[in-house]
Design goal:
- The protein has helices spanning 2-18, 22-31, 45-52, 57-83, 86-102, 115-125, 127-144, 147-164, 170-186, 188-196.
- The protein has 206 residues and is an all-alpha fold.
- The protein has one domain.
């Protein structure tokens, strides 16, 4: 029973706070617009940047990072206090933050692709995982100018690195595998566009 309560106290706030969307909030506050009706329609940082430029982008990042860090730290603390399983607490809470970001309860379950949340989660998981994940994202994006491809490759490193570095066990690996699969699944339209050669390349706006 205690395990169920600890799990619930970790994942419920993670999902609810994960449902807060920085791009939607920032677009409404600064521009009085709905980012879901502009550009690609995706309420994420990349589409926000393509539509509005760098103005407000820092606010998007700040909101999405804060809404990720808070519940992951809570899950970390709860699992450390009751079970000495800090990695599992972070991994599970991180996955539910991403789930909330992708399927937000506040926005009719129409959310982003979980990339910014995933980037914050992996930093909190382990610095080595973060260096490899973020490194692959930056390298692939810089080489191809496809943010979607960089995000998928970076996300795919999560289960590989957690296993390679021996961080946790099967449940921790499973949680990070689910994070990776969620990122890839949310990019399925991008995958189809990449195959057809129709995916938009990232351009730096002034």
């Amino acid at each position: 029973m205690k395990l169920f309560l600890v799990l619930l106290a970790s994942v419920a706030p993670a999902y609810v706070l994960g449902s807060v969307n920085g791009a939607i909030i920032t677009a409404r506050i600064l521009y009085r617009k709905d980012i879901r009706e502009l550009g690609s329609g995706n309420p994420g940082l990349t589409n926000f940047y393509r539509v509005f430029g760098k103005g407000g982008a820092l606010m998007v990042v700040a909101i999405d990072v804060a809404k990720t860090v808070a519940p992951v730290l809570l899950g970390w603390w709860l699992f450390a206090k009751y079970y000495d399983m800090t990695v599992l607490g972070r991994a599970i809470s991180g996955f539910f933050v991403m789930l909330g970001h992708c399927f937000p309860v506040f926005y009719k379950f129409r959310g982003g692709k979980g990339v910014m949340a995933a980037g914050a989660v992996v930093i909190l998981m382990d610095w080595r995982m973060a260096i490899i994940g973020w490194g692959m994202f930056l390298i692939v994006t810089a080489m191809t100018r496809y943010v979607s491809l960089g995000a998928m490759v970076g996300g795919a490193t999560f289960p590989v690195t957690i296993a390679a570095f021996g961080i946790g066990g099967v449940w921790e690996f499973t949680a990070m595998l689910m994070c990776s699969l969620l990122i890839i699944a949310r990019h399925s339209p991008n995958i189809r566009r990449l195959v057809r050669g129709e995916e938009s390349k990232f351009k730096i706006r002034q």
